[in-house]
């Protein structure tokens, strides 16, 4: 069975983890800062804060952007639920800006209309769907006019580049960028996430709320009289200055992720090669086309999505997935629009809120794309699609 995605672990990765397990600190040790420095350096950001998951990264970023009661977070309907849930964790509410049908990313036009309806927006969370960076210049301009922060959900896009050549994560068009290191993403930490930023105040706040809201760096004490005795600092003293979380990542995970970083460019190069082979093969198919045909040379290519005209082939998507599976080919749908999840329907969202997202969803199917997919396996995938979809 060829899965739609899979991580790649080599002997160096194993050695890096074994090294931690044989006598190094398991958590709160030096691997965390080393991994943060490696990602900050790679993407070209001043600061990076590693956390326990991409979801934790989004939650902390939303909190740092002051999403809270009465405040709104605007995201894309075509994303993993975590992008929207970040607002709810903060006690805020969510609005969705529909996608552009060609890029499947947040449409700046739709965002403009959503911001007019929601002047209480604190954060805009564009999602670089499938690793293809959003139109960040337009989104940034709209955010400036509305006074909202921009948080890039780059869970799919480590290693991708913006249209102007800047690395995703450099925050040249945003306040913060969030990454995930779940094994199906660009690099694996087991579970893990990161926030990059160039803003020292956001950085300081993120460090605090990652670990219970306890003072970090040289945060001034709020009760200085408790911090000293006879003019001497009290060595045990710390302050919980606001309600934070325990979202720390371990040294075990960071050792693995740091080792994986060395292979990131090779991982992406292979994904790009595989995508170009798919693109060429599917040009000859009639009822199926690549879902995000543009920007292949700068996309992180987290998933390869097809748009299939299921009505034209006379088969349901479920039937196509089962027939592919019977030929040893895994597939998946990215994503069910968040707006139609039961939890969001209960808040009043309906399918017609985001028509472009719905029409994309009706046709979407992701097929295998990962570093270890061999040329032979890829040929099997293409042959299976020719049989099943025609
Ligand atoms: C994976 C993912 C997340 C959440 O990351 P986790 O590390 O699984 O918590 C958020 N947004 C998107 C778009 C994702 O794909």
UniProtKB/TrEMBL annotation:
Stored InterPro entries: DegT/StrS_aminotransferase, PseC, PyrdxlP-dep_Trfase, PyrdxlP-dep_Trfase_major, PyrdxlP-dep_Trfase_small
Keyword Phosphoprotein included in the entry's annotation: no
Modified residues (N6-(pyridoxal phosphate)lysine): 185
A biological process from GO: polysaccharide biosynthetic process
Statement: the UniProt record of this protein carries the keyword Cytoplasm: no
Record's keyword terms, sorted: Pyridoxal phosphate
Pfam families assigned: DegT_DnrJ_EryC1
Catalytic residues (positions): 185
Molecular-function annotations in GO: pyridoxal phosphate binding; transaminase activity
Family membership noted in the UniProt record: Belongs to the DegT/DnrJ/EryC1 family.
Annotated PANTHER family: DTDP-4-AMINO-4,6-DIDEOXYGALACTOSE TRANSAMINASE, TRANSAMINASE
Protein name: UDP-4-amino-4,6-dideoxy-N-acetyl-beta-L-altrosami ne transaminase
Gene name per UniProt: rkpM
């Amino acid at each position: 069975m060829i899965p739609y995605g899979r991580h790649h672990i080599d002997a160096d990765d194993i050695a890096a983890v074994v090294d931690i397990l044989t006598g190094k600190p398991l958590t709160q040790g030096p691997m965390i800062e080393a991994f943060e420095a490696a990602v900050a350096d790679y993407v070209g950001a001043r600061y990076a804060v590693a956390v326990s998951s991409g979801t934790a990264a989004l939650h902390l970023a939303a909190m740092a952007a002051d999403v809270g009661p009465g405040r709104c977070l605007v995201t894309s309907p075509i994303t993993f639920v975590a992008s929207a849930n970040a607002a709810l964790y903060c006690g805020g509410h969510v609005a969705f800006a529909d996608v552009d049908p060609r890029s499947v990313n947040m449409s700046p036009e739709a965002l403009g209309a959503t911001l007019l309806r929601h002047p209480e927006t604190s954060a805009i969370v564009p999602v670089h769907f499938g690793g293809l960076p959003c139109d960040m210049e337009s989104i940034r301009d709209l955010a400036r006019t509305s006074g909202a922060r921009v948080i890039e959900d780059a869970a799919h896009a480590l290693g991708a580049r913006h249209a102007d050549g800047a690395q995703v994560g450099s925050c040249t068009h945003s306040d913060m960028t969030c990454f995930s290191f779940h094994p199906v993403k660009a690099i694996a930490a087991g579970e893990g996430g990161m926030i990059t930023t160039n803003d020292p105040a956001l950085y300081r706040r993120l460090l605090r709320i990652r670990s219970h809201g306890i003072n970090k760096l040289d945060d001034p004490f709020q009760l200085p009289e408790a911090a000293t005795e006879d003019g001497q600092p009290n060595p045990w003293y710390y302050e919980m200055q606001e309600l934070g979380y325990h979202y720390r990542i371990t040294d075990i995970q960071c050792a693995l992720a740091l080792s994986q970083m060395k292979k990131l460019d090779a991982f992406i190069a292979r994904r790009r090669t595989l995508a170009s082979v798919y693109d060429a093969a599917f040009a000859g198919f009639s009822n199926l086309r690549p879902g995000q045909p543009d920007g292949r040379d700068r996309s992180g290519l987290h998933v390869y999505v097809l748009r299939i005209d299921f009505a034209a082939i006379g088969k349901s998507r479920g039937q196509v997935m089962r027939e592919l599976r019977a030929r040893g080919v895994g597939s998946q749908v990215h994503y069910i629009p968040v707006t139609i999840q039961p939890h969001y329907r209960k808040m009043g969202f309906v399918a017609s809120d985001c028509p472009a997202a719905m029409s994309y969803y009706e046709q979407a199917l992701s097929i295998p794309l990962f570093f270890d997919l061999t040329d032979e396996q890829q040929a099997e995938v293409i042959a299976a699609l020719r049989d099943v979809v025609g």
